[in-house]
Amino acid sequence: MTRAARLAGLAAGLALGALAPTAWGLQAAPVATQQAAPAAPVVRPPRQGYEVVATYPHDPTAFTQGLVFRHGELLESTGRYPSTIRRVRLADGEVLARRELDTRLFGEGLTVFGDRMITLTWQTGEGFVWDPDTLEPEGSFTYAGEGWGLTHDGTRLILSDGTSRLRFLDPVTFAETGGVTVNWQGRPVGRLNELEFIDGEVWANVWQTDAVLRIDPATGNILSVIDLSGLLAEGEVADPNDEVLNGIAWDPQTRRLFVTGKNWPKLFEIRVTPAG
Question: 0.90 exceeded by the pTM?
Answer without folding.
Answer: no
